[in-house]
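Why do we care about 3D structure at all? Because function follows from shape, and shape follows, mostly, from sequence. That is the central idea of this module. The next example makes it concrete: a single protein chain, its amino acid sequence, and then its structure expressed as tokens.
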Amino acid sequence: MTVVHTPSNHPAGSTAEPVRLDITKTMAGKRLDAVLAAALPEFSRARWQRAVADGLVVCDGAPLTNAAAKVRAGSVFIVTPPLRQPAAPLAEALPLAVVHEDDDVLVVDKPAGMVTHPAAGNDSGTLVNALLHHCGARLADTGDPLRPGIVHRLDKDTSGLLVVAKTAAAYTSLRAQFADHGRSGPLERAYTAFVWGVPSRAAATIDAPLARSTLNREKRAVSTASDARTAVTRYTIEETFCDRFNEPAAALLRLHLETGRTHQIRVHLAHIGHPVIGDALYGAGFKTKVHRLAGAARRTAAALRRQALHAAVLGFAHPTRDEVLRFESPLPEDLAGLYRALKAADGW
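And the structure:
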């Protein structure tokens, strides 16, 4: 393997000059993250995994997204070293809705508008900052100082239930359960979403692989590319709502995840033509739909400042006890208000 500096613009997440990595036969078959860590050991393997996810490793002009992919001899990667690891986050006395807490785990109800963990542009005010104030040092070491105790995440503007690990054993157990996605265990993750329009089938499974969008790095997209990752979402229609012309306008869905990809539910619902109400990233083309709603429904939907998506149910096997924990979170007030307004308009 050779490392040759090559000039380039600095992508987001880095201020360093890109380098060229030529893969030799001796490195063939090794994982991408292992190769990167060996070539540029000033960054850990975990840090390289995040760098790959951030699009800092490019091959043939396209960012790679799978840090576990095996490299091939003759491949040439253009790699932009990531930013140096920032300082550990500080504890902040932020409101924290604790649903359950014991010596091993903490279950919280995250509000919309709160980022799960610090990242570029969000180094304070996150759930992690609140957890550090609440738990002190009693959070699991995850190998990432910016994500102590974090097992899974919710998008900033998605509300609902999250489980946090307080011990190493709890983190290992929960990570394994989330990786299994409930196929052989009791893990359960159910979401409530308000979507534009009414899907043609009352219940269905959306099986569509996802990859980072080639047009917008902030987005994910359904893809047939070789680096696309399997993504499966099941939904059931719970209620439907009509507009002021008495035509189907919106639906309330219950969704279950069989995989856990970034933005999975939002991308999948937009893919079938029924984006989440209020989703500015994946449903921008549906903004005019609000004008078809009646009175309070129109005003409430127009005033919504986030996607109408809520992590309503979370169940898992307790890491150290022989029991299954299951929690439900009611709709927060902004989504409850949307429901009431849509329900009232339905009988308009």
